[in-house]
Structure formats: structure tokens, C-alpha cells
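Notebook B, p. 112. Complex prediction, attempt 2.
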Amino acid sequence: MCLAIPARIIEFSSEQENRALVDVVGVRRHIDTGLLLDDPPRIGDWVLVHVGFAMSKVSEAEALEQIRMLTALGESDAARQEAEGYGSVPEVESS
Amino acid sequence: MKFVDEFRDAAVIGKAVEEIRRLADSGRHYRFMEVCGGHTHAIYRFGLKDLLPENIELIHGPGCPVCVLPMGRIDDGLAIAQEAGVIFTAFGDMMRVPGTHGSPLEHKARGVDVRIVYSPADALRLAELNPDRHVMFFAIGFETTAPSTALTLMRAKARGIRNFSVFCNHVTIIPGIRAILDSPDMRIDAFLGPGHVSTVIGCRPYEWIARNEHKPIVVSGFEPLDILQSVLMLLRQLGAGEARVENQYKRVTPWEGNRAALRAIGEVFELRNYFEWRGMGFISQSALRVRDSYADWDAERLFSVPGIRVTDPKAAQCGEVLKGVLKPAQCKLFGNECTPEHPVGALMVSSEGSCAAYHNYEHRKSLTNIAVPAVKGES
């Protein structure tokens, strides 16, 4: 029950407000986006889904930043500073 | 899958583990509590315990909503299920939780209309499809789940669906953590904060833990690398003599939480004066009930609920395990009378309960199977 899964918004329902079709692990399901009223997701956005409701948007930039930091673990401080000095979030090809 | 594979990368996990070993002071014993049952499950599933140095002990916290629900509430819910015309709906996790006269699943076998739903919205849909029946949703969960129940009730009211109600067992995490910290037999150095609860409540509600209790807390994600990185962040804070709230799970959890979700909770629910937590007793202002303005959808008011308090089997030591005083295997019933197939206590039922997690994964070697370099003399 406490499982929360990342899903990508495919389309919004034209008949019902706050209803979206998402791709969850390759399966298409309808979810409720009514809890994201303050920062509504758009088509293509990743959201975290829990018990049929989108709970929050998943930030791709933060995910990449985190991976970058983790990958730099164990490098010398100088190397880490160098890596962090590259600054902006690297561009990636969208899959 | 995106945002999953990256956080299970064996090479990076190896680096994180090496860094943890470098930072952990070999002369010190660390006790970190993971508050959330989702973390407990991940720690056992991925064998993370085996990757950490021996002097880092992970204590399993009270953050499993199925586990902290007292048996009397299950009995109350099942009493409603037996009223004429009622369809009892609940999440799958609830189905094998024992009540005094059997679990929801056992009641189903006896002819009670018990159905699994994956979302409260599906329970509401069931009510729409069965206008001559009454659909009761047995709601459990912390702040992660409460907004979804709240929004479902708002939808029921807006659409005028009257044959639907909620039996509310939602609990709030902060009083649970406070009860753990107030417990005299508990000594914890730092916390892994619950990532998904925090998507709703944000990170600020934990500030008292850092400020008043002087314990670091890192709000953590649920992938192996999330948990290892959070352990690393806790070690860095402790090494520097700091106690702060940090957010490791920034990709999902905003510092301020989700205000729209909090508004939905506030619209539908209010705090109960007190609520019983299994194994921990009554904790004040630790649970939610349905507001007067939604009384017509409140199962506790629509039906007569026995409200009987049931004590747990004496031999079971769920309370001690729940508070982290005992390890699951130290309970007298563990693995003998109490197994995931025949659970005595709720910690053995839910996959997020520490006993079930320990039982299911205990013998599994670390999934990642990484050659971790031997500890070098540095500390």
C-alpha cells in the first residue's frame, strides 16, 4: 500500500477534470491529479503515484544532480570540486 | 525504468559503501532509526544491512500503518462489514490482518462482502456502480495516504454520492516519532526521515528533532542508493557535530511539502484527541477523524461501532519490536507460531512490517553482490 511509483503523464481526460492517463512501468492507467492543483503537471512530466493519486512531480534535474554527486563519491576533493565546478545540470537525451 | 535503475547501479553502490566505511568512526556504535516501513522493506530486500559496517545499526521505526493499527479497530471495521447491504473495501495489505474473529479475508470466506481496492477512488466508483448497496472504505495510512482519502470524500460530497463512507484510521507521523523519543529505553543517534510522508508534510515538521533533541534527520528516498546516501549524510553531520534536517530525496520531496494535499486533509479531517497505536499505547493528537461537515460519509457515525479494546496476545512482543527495543527474531513467537503465512501480530502481515521483511529476506544475500574493499585503518 505504501508503494509509490514514478509514472509519466500521457494525456489528460477531456471528460473529467484532474484525470490523466499515465504510463506506470509499461502499463497504462488512469490516475487522479487533483492533489497537484498548485503545480499542475503537463504531458510528458513524471509524477509519483500513490493509491491512484499523483502525490508530487519528479524532478529530472534533481535526479541527475543526485546521480552526479553519487558518481563523484570517493574521488579526491580536488576532483570533486572540479566536477561540481562544471555547474549546470548536464543535458541528456530524452528517452 | 527511469529513476530506478540509476539508483541500483552496483558500481556507485560500491563507492557509497566505501565512503560510509571511511566516515564511520570505528570506535563508535551508531543507532539510526528508519521511521518508515518502506525503508525497512528496502533495507531487507536489497540486503543493505550486510553492506553497512557492523557498528552501524539500523533500528526499524513505527512507520507501518498496518502494523500500528490496534486489533480493536479491525474488529470495529469488520462489525460494520456485517451490517446489511454493506460492501467492505480495503487495501490488499489489510486483508490478512487478524481480528479477534479472523481477518477480513476469513470473513470473506464466511460470506461477508469484502473486496480489495487499490485506491479509495475505486471504492467510490464501486459505490456509484452499486447504488442499492453501501460501500465502506477502511482507510489507513499516514499523511502519504490521507490526502487521497480526503479528496475522495470531497468528490463523494460534490457528486452527491450518499452510499459511500470512510472508516478513518489515518495516523500522523510526528507524534509517533515523539513517542519513540520519549520512550525511556530508547537510544537513537539519528533518523532516516520518511520520504513519501514528506512529499505531503514537507521537511519543516522535523525541525524540532534537530533543534530540541539534537539529532540529525535526513529525509530519504527508497532506492538502495537513496538509503546509502542518507546514511552517508547522517555520518557527515554526526562527524561534524551537527544536527540538521536534510533532504536527500529532493527529486520527489519539496522542502515545503504539498500544500494542496494538506488543504485537502484540513478540509475533510481534524485531529483526534488521542488514538491507540498498537504496542505503543494511546498517543495524543496522533490520528485523524472525519470533520462534522463530512459526517454523512463517516462510517463511525453512520454505524454503531463496538469500540472494544483488544489486548494483543501476551506472548507476542510486537510493541517492543515496533519501538526498536527488540529485533524481530528476538520475539518468542518469531518464525514458530508467528509467520507470514499464519501471522499472530501485524508486524508479520504487512510486507513493510519489520518481522515480515526480516522473515522474507533474512537468508538472502545482498542482491548487488558487490566486492566491497576491506576496511582500511583510517577512520
